[in-house]
Amino acid sequence: MAPPIVRGTAAWKYFGDFRAALLAGQVLVLQVAHPVVAAGVRDHSDYTSDPWTRLTRTVASLSIYVYGGAAGARVEAARLRSLHRSFTGVSDGRRYSALDPAAYAWVHATLVKAPVDAQRFFGVPLSGPELEEYYAQMCDIGRLLGVRERDLPPDWAAFERYYDSMVSGFSANPTIHTLFETIRTARKPVRWLRDSWWRPVGDLQLFLIRATLPPSFRALLGLQWTEGDQRRFDRFTACVRLVSTPIPAWLRTALMRWVGQLNVWFRAHPRAYRALVRGDGPGSFSRG
């Protein structure tokens, strides 16, 4: 059994590291590469019309799992599964459910992998013992969310084999193309932000998607990657590493920890949440 997620443990240090946000686009692409997730997003997600509300709710939900305490995580997990029971439909002549065990496990897997990749690209790669502790803790979260035991590989090496096998079985689909278009055309989060400042943000996110997707899947999607792109990415990662590595873990995770704790408070004060956000609860979103 994994140690509890407390200050100084692997999941506490790495899951909420702000550098993981640089992989947000990559994670979304890989999630909707799964045909069941793609169908669910197509039919039930409002991210194309309101991406910022979707993003806010997603971050709120994720933060609770790791930084909201065991009780908060249990409540959020139950709420999430209840929400997803209604996300059903028909795709390519077959019925699907957002709680399809394999698809549900895959979404969890992408969230497990991203913080590790963030350290590999932009920080200091996790050591062997850290990887094992991190993975064991994230497996406990997976069980809490309802991922089947047989869909949780026994260790990190087995997880990487599972992850690579899943990616190798994916193909392009319309939901991926819609996601790319949404990133290209997403409106500014605040009106006062100049267009000349906002446009490079979308360009950077699209560049980071190309840079960090598994190379075989990047090629399958027809995304070009040149030696010049690689040099540009190497310079970017070096700059991020230089600036961020000296920052202590408690500060790199401060925002996500604060969001998690705030949303536990909102859970206990639903009237305050509705007054401020006009929603149905912290983390209310279509996961996938």
Protein described:
The chain has 288 residues and is mostly helical. Helix content is 66%, strand content 3%. It has helices at residues 10-14, 24-32, 35-44, 51-67, 69-84, 101-122, 128-145, 156-168, 174-185, 195-212, 215-220, 227-244, 249-252, 254-268, 270-277; strands spanning 88-91, 94-97. It has a two-stranded antiparallel ribbon with strand order 1-2. Mean pLDDT is 88; it is low at 280-288.
Mean pLDDT: 88
Q: Helical residue percent?
A: 55-70%
Given as residue ranges, the uncertain stretches (5+ residues, pLDDT < 50) are: 280-288
* Order of SSEs: HHHHHEEHHHHHHHHHH
Q: Using DSSP, what is the number of strands?
A: 2
The amount of beta strand, in percent, is: under 5%
Terminal CA distance reads 28 Å
Strand order of the largest sheet: 1-2
Sum up the structure in keywords.
single chain; 288 residues; mainly alpha; two-stranded antiparallel sheet; 66% helix; disordered C terminus
Brief rundown of the structure:
The chain is an all-alpha fold.
